[in-house]
Every structure is written in C-alpha cells, then in structure tokens.
Amino acid sequence: MRLKKVGDYAEVTSKLEPVINVARNLGCFILFIHHAPKMERELVDSAPGSRGFVGSVDTAILIEKDKNGTRSFSTIQRYRNPGEKDVEDMVINLTADGITLEPVGSIHDVKMCNRSKSRIKEVRKK
User: Fold this and answer.
1) Is residue 59 a contact partner of residue 74, using CB atoms and an 8 Å limit?
2) CA gap 87, 109 in Å, rounded
3) What predicted TM-score, i.e. pTM, was given to this entire model?
C-alpha cells in the first residue's frame, strides 16, 4: 500500500478500505505496528495519518511509557456489544528478560497505591 501523504486522513482511509474488506471476507485480521516518537501529544495522534489508521481498525492497542517511566496498556474498541466496555487501562512492567510484559494493576489502583505510599513517607518524616 503506497501513500502519497501518510498524514492525509482521506487518503489513508481510502487505501485501507479494500485491504480491510479482504481481511473481513477472509475472516482474518490485519496488524499494524508503529513505534511512536517521544513527543508530548496524544498517543493516537503519534502515528503519521494515525487518525485514519485508528479510525479504520476494529481495535487499537496502545502501549506507552510516561515521563516517569511507567508503562501502560489501553485499547480503543470500535465495536462493542451493548453494555461492554473497553479493556481497563492497565499499568504494565517489562520483566527481567526484557521481552515479556506483565500486568501490575489498573492505572487508577496503581495511582492510589502510589499516593498512599507518598503519604506514608510524609507521615514517617514527621
């Protein structure tokens, strides 16, 4: 698939449409992998033409590392059954082998735990 302007939403979606139709007819999926640049912007906007790519897929899986080094895993689901939610955003760790990712807990729970640890340190200092 060749694109003149990878940042052009209309061109990205029109070029992807026939590929997506073939995949659906064959009952398979397409996997795009993109390494986002280290910039301050939304992760879904990090890939060139990403709104076209993210808008065309059934599920976008986002893995990012914040400025504190915390890695997180989240999804954007295009189709869901009534009442179904996206996968809960999770904090993940890279294991010692440097290859495997393991879940730590939900982003909310990890933030609450970190706040509690900070408060305990403050109380102990007094």
Assistant:
1) no
2) 15
3) 0.62
CA dist 87 and 76 (Å) reads: 8
**Domain ranges across the chain:** 9-125
Q: For the chain, how far is it from start to end, CA to CA, in angstroms?
A: 63
Please write the tens of the pLDDT for every residue from 50-107. 577 777 778 888 888 888 888 888 888 877 778 777 778 888 888 889 888 888 888 8
The contacts of residue 71 (CB under 8 Å, 6+ apart) are: 63, 64, 65, 91, 92, 93, 94, 101
Which long-range contacts does 92-98 make (Cβ < 8 Å, 24+ apart)? 92/63
Q: Which two tokens stand for residue 52?
A: 């076209």
Extract the tokens encoding 29.
């999926």
What DSSP assignment string belongs to 10-56? HHHHHHHHHHHHHHHHHT----------S-SS-GGGSSTTHHHHHHH
